[in-house]
Design a protein that fits this description.
Keywords: Disulfide bond, EGF-like domain. With about 775 residues, the protein is an alpha/beta fold. It has four domains: about 5-240, Class I glutamine amidotransferase (GATase) domain (Rossmann fold, 3-Layer(aba) Sandwich), CATH 3.40.50; about 250-335 and about 380-635, TIM Barrel (Alpha-Beta Barrel), CATH 3.20.20; about 655-720; about 730-763, Laminin (Ribbon). It is built from 20 helices and 33 strands. The strands form nine sheets. Strands 2, 3, 4, 5, 6, 7, 8, 9, 10 and 11 form a ten-stranded mixed beta sheet that branches. Strands 17-18-19-20-22-21 form a six-stranded mixed beta sheet, with helices on both faces. It has a four-stranded antiparallel beta sheet with strand order 1-25-26-29. Helix 14 links the parallel strand 18 (about 430-435) and strand 19 (about 475-480). Helix 8 (about 310-320) crosses helix 11 (about 405-410) and helix 14 (about 445-460) runs parallel beside helix 15 (about 490-495). The radius of gyration is 31 Å and the shape is elongated.
Length: about 775
């Protein structure tokens, strides 16, 4: 417990989550704080434990400073018999002494002064909107005050909005009698129709504040993720030790290549068997991006990224040239992966279909395969004449660059000419390498890998496309074809020798993810990948397929894959709605920075809608996201995205701790942030969000540079920590007629002829 005014005004800017053993309904709170990087601790209270939890020791440091700045309860432990009366009073006393707020989920309406409408108890979806009284709760969370929240799968009994009592009783079974503190509860979350509500801001007569929701929550619900952000911001008085950065980055692999369709399509009288993005496509997407950014909240900067293959430029220009006149030497390279080759079975890789653990001694061919299992794919590109066993005749590949003609490229490839001649495509989109001809790198030699990288670099250089001198270019990160080569040490070593030390993975494959910390990249090891230290950035697949240009194409494949899941065919609007919910719930609201995978064929504007697949997908995601938040939304080029991941990794290595200083009148005066002494000696930037008022733009993001083992103090201006004067009892109690000044927790011994901290020393 606090013992002096100096320590009473210090508390760690850390969140406590109180729950019970086995209860999974804290995952949305953990996901919210993991995404922001907010320090927190989950404590599961077990009444059957041999050693009961000592709440005084839990809440207070030995020096008298508070260990937490606020706490969540999920479920509502105060009212389900998990806490005894002494525990409850200790928690309440902690709030009084520190100004800490609480937020509770699974609260019965009667415990916050309302009557439950038991006839309306349900888990069906019934829209909810924020009440007029929710403005101080929304604060600087950036949650959209006009949001409509669903609640499908969340069991609740709504309450009528007129308070039934003037107190908020806690009457758990183990209490000898109910505790009935006076309170005023204001609805903050209304059900459709406005007569009933599902959440309230509770202000107790002694000054404590608590946010209460009548349903338990979980991360499967976008509503719960929204309420996680809202309640956390309110809980910490809009002083958040974390970073809120919503990123939506989309890669369109295979730019300049032509993608074959699995079957021909006819639209507008035109039959197509393949598609290659055009200048008109890029122009349309630049216009669409500008319109989209104008609608997004201030600070937004959405931009598509193009991993490109330079061989497609030569192939297209050659096809447009007069036979025999095109000077460039074209390279015929097999681009199939392990699973597409007969050697996958003849080399004994079959066990990989059940996982790498079942392969006791696979051959080198098998070990180099990035992906360890696969499902039948009816849309494989027909085999090319070369294979891993029967390679194409070796060619002096780099020498072919001298045969390239800029004039022939510009004359024969309108798309390449547009990129070369106009600034818009290189400033309006981000660019990175995807190798020259899309050769799968799982079993590529060092020479082949080197040629793929150097030829594409030559095409990207100022002599041709001119990408490498632009701010939009990423030089040290790339997307490998088919997410290949990640277990081929020769290929990875060659990437490193060419300055590439980060590649994208595929979240579909669990072994390409960092299982210990999903907000970090996975780093290769010599034992698993053949080389240490190459970063594998998580990247998410989408339900927009690589060989589709129209909604009809994409829907045919989607229904082929998922008919048995839904027991019916889906509409394309349903596909987009499911994708939007998934991306917003599992990506943007969790502040995951993983980019998303699409392909060049998805840029096509060939049907009557005038909108590409990526336009439709992004528009659906943005509509879902802005329905809930006012946060800026931006994209980051691959090198910058890698730096963002590395900054997060450095912060986590620093093991940051924050401490807030407050005056007796409740004004927050400073935050001190400290870094643990990391073994790596890592430096990091400690994030701190400050702000007040509705709207994400009101929250100011501060980054505090720290060295390993160092600390820094940030002085605050105008930040109110609590809305009431904190009651700080004197400890030890005042003796001999001394009067406790509860504002500062100090005994006033005036007129007693005694002195000392407790007026016990004769004067």
């Amino acid at each position: 417990m606090c013992t002096s005014p100096a320590t009473a005004l210090m508390q760690q800017l850390k969140v406590l989550v109180l729950s019970t053993p086995g209860f999974v309904g804290t995952d949305f709170l953990e996901a919210t704080m993991d995404g922001l990087g907010v320090p927190y601790e989950v404590v599961r209270v077990d009444r059957a434990a041999a050693q009961p939890l000592n709440f005084t020791q839990l809440l207070w440091n030995p020096d008298g400073s508070a260990r937490y700045a606020g706490y969540f309860m999920a479920p509502n432990l105060e009212a389900i018999g998990t806490l005894n009366k002494s525990d409850v009073l200790t928690l309440w006393d902690f709030q009084l002494r520190t100004g800490a707020r609480s937020a509770r989920f699974g609260v019965w309406p009667g415990s916050i002064s309302f009557n439950a409408d038991t006839a309306s108890c349900s888990a069906a979806d019934l829209p909810m909107t924020f009440s007029a009284g929710a403005a101080p709760v929304i604060g600087s969370s950036g949650i959209n005050p006009a949001a409509t929240l669903g609640n499908e799968g969340l069991w609740r009994c709504p309450f009528t909005k007129t308070p039934a009592t003037v107190d908020c009783p806690i009457c758990a079974a183990d209490f000898p009698e109910c505790i009935r503190p006076n309170c005023t509860a204001t609805p903050v979350l209304d059900f459709a129709g406005g007569a009933t509500a599902g959440g309230a801001l509770v202000k107790y007569a002694d000054g404590r504040e608590s946010l209460a929701f009548i349903f338990d929550c979980a991360a499967f619900s976008p509503t719960c993720m929204v309420l996680g952000h809202l309640s956390l911001s309110w809980l910490l008085h809009d002083i958040i030790p974390g970073q809120r950065d919503a990123l939506l980055t989309i890669h369109h692999d295979d730019i300049f290549l032509t993608t074959e369709f699995s079957k021909p399509i006819t639209d507008g009288g035109v039959t197509r068997t393949a598609y290659r993005a055009t200048k008109a496509d890029l122009l349309a997407h630049l216009t669409w991006q500008a319109t989209l950014n104008a609608k997004l909240p201030a600070g937004s900067d959405f931009k598509l990224e193009f991993p490109f293959n330079g061989a497609g430029v030569l192939e297209t220009a050659a096809q447009a040239s007069t036979p025999g006149q095109f000077t460039a030497t074209l390279l015929d390279i097999d681009d199939r992966g392990c699973l597409d080759l007969p050697e996958y079975n003849t080399s004994g890789c079959g066990c990989w279909f059940s996982g790498t653990a079942t392969c006791s001694s696979p051959s080198a061919f098998c070990r180099n395969c990035t992906k360890a299992r696969s499902l039948p794919n009816p849309m494989l590109i027909p085999p090319l004449p070369c294979s891993w066993i029967q390679p194409c005749p070796p060619q002096d590949a780099l020498a072919t660059v001298s045969t390239w003609s800029l004039a022939q490229i510009r004359a024969g490839d309108e798309l390449a000419d547009y990129v070369i001649s106009e600034p818009a495509p290189t400033s309006g989109f981000n660019w990175c390498s995807h190798t020259f001809s899309h050769q799968n790198l799982d079993n590529a030699t060092s020479y082949d890998t080197d040629m793929q990288l150097r030829l594409n670099a030559a095409m990207a250089a100022p002599a041709f496309l001119g990408l490498t001198t632009k701010a939009s270019w990423s030089s040290s990160s790339m997307v490998t074809p088919q997410i290949s080569g990640l277990r081929n040490g020769d290929a990875l070593a060659t990437l490193k020798a060419n300055g590439v030390t980060c590649v994208t993975g595929d979240n579909t494959w669990p072994f390409l993810l960092n299982k210990e910390q999903p907000y970090h990249m996975l780093y290769t090891t010599a034992a698993t990948n053949g080389i240490d230290g190459i970063a594998i950035m998580p990247r998410s697949a989408t339900e927009v397929y690589y060989n589709c240009t129209t909604a009809a194409q994409n829907l045919d494949l989607y229904n082929f894959l998922y008919f048995k899941v839904f027991n019916r065919d889906s509409t394309f609007d349903e596909v987009l709605a499911r994708e939007a919910v998934r991306v917003v719930r599992d990506g943007l609201l969790k502040l995951r920075h993983d980019p998303y995978m699409m392909h060049q064929a998805n840029l096509g504007l060939v049907d009557s809608s005038g909108r590409s697949l990526v336009m439709r997908w992004v528009d659906a995601v943005v509509a879902e996201f802005t329905k809930y938040t006012n946060w800026p939304l931006r994209s980051a080029k691959l090198d910058d995205l890698r730096a963002i991941f590395e900054a997060r990794e450095a912060r986590d290595a620093c093991k940051l701790s924050y401490q807030i200083e407050t005056t007796p009148l409740g004004t927050a005066t400073a935050v001190t942030v400290s870094s643990a002494a990391a073994a790596s000696g890592a430096k990091c930037d400690a994030p701190l969000m400050l702000g007040a008022g509705v709207g994400g733009a009101a929250a100011k993001q501060v980054m505090i540079p720290l060295v390993s083992g160092g600390s820094a103090r940030v002085e605050l201006t105008g930040q109110q920590w609590n809305a009431f004067t904190v009651v700080r009892p004197c400890s030890p109690p005042c003796l001999n007629g001394g009067v406790c000044n509860t504002t500062v927790g100090v005994c006033d011994c005036t007129g007693t002829n005694f002195t000392g901290a407790d007026c016990s020393t004769a004067g």
